[in-house]
TrEMBL record:
InterPro entries: HAD-like_SerB (IPR050582), HAD-like_sf (IPR036412), HAD_hydro_SerB1 (IPR006385), HAD_sf (IPR023214). SUPFAM superfamilies: HAD-like (SSF56784). This is HAD family hydrolase. It comes from Pseudonocardia yunnanensis. The keyword RNA-binding does not apply. Pfam families: HAD. Keywords: Hydrolase, Membrane, Transmembrane, Transmembrane helix. CDD domains: HAD_PGPPase (cd02612).
Amino acid sequence: MLEAAHSADPAVRAGEAAAAAAVAAGDGGPPDVPLTDLTAAAFFDVDNTMMVGASIFHFARGLAARKFFTTADLAGFAWQQLKFRVGGRETAYSTTTGRDTALSFVAGRAVSEITELGEEIYDELMADRIWAGTRALAQMHLDAGQRVWLVTATPVELALIIARRLGLTGALGTVAEIVDRIYTGRLVGEILHGPAKAHAVRALAVTEGLDLRRCTAYSDSVNDVPMLSAVGTAVAVNPDSELRDVAKERGWQIRDFRTGRKAARIGVPSVIGVGAIAGAVAAGLAARKR
């Protein structure tokens, strides 16, 4: 089990735990890409930045197909997330109750089982949803000899699968508490979301010897402004309207790989994929348990 960070701040604990997990799982980068620029790196959000829609929602769909829960539950998860996004109540998911129920759907399951399912579900529901333009940006950094990490609210085990399949260095994700290789259903700190992502990037930079002024971060969401502000170069990818405004105000780059028709089609997944894992999967489950 990963040791919890010492800070009392759940966001800091989440960030430090995510960085520790990334280092523990990493192997220094793709084996066929020499690391020649060791102090610069790139950090990519996943949902609607690297992947169309929300990775955790796709994962939930795959679990529903395997009878982890019903399709009615899945619809409930989507509805809870819609209310969460429209109501703007992000802080609700930082409460003790929100943290403790965020991964209740895997409580009692073996890490190996969830990882194996993640591999299958990636092939079934995620592989063809990668934005080609964003993937090319990641490859640009790899070709320059830099390391590339995903930074996401998705569970770190799933995030690492996505990173590995894309040939990236690794991933910073939400860390679940594990005892004897079994998930307890609780988080280490909180969901890797908002400020927690920035803490994770800073913690990883200290461990890996990165100069954040030489690093680049990519995201679609205004919730990731803390992470984008932590590095020297910020890029808004497929940005929501609020992030687009911030990017214009601060002179950040904007890359949009959506067409009008496709942007309309991914509107609901965008709402579902705000970046809070509890909203996408466990909010509906927790509501049913109450």
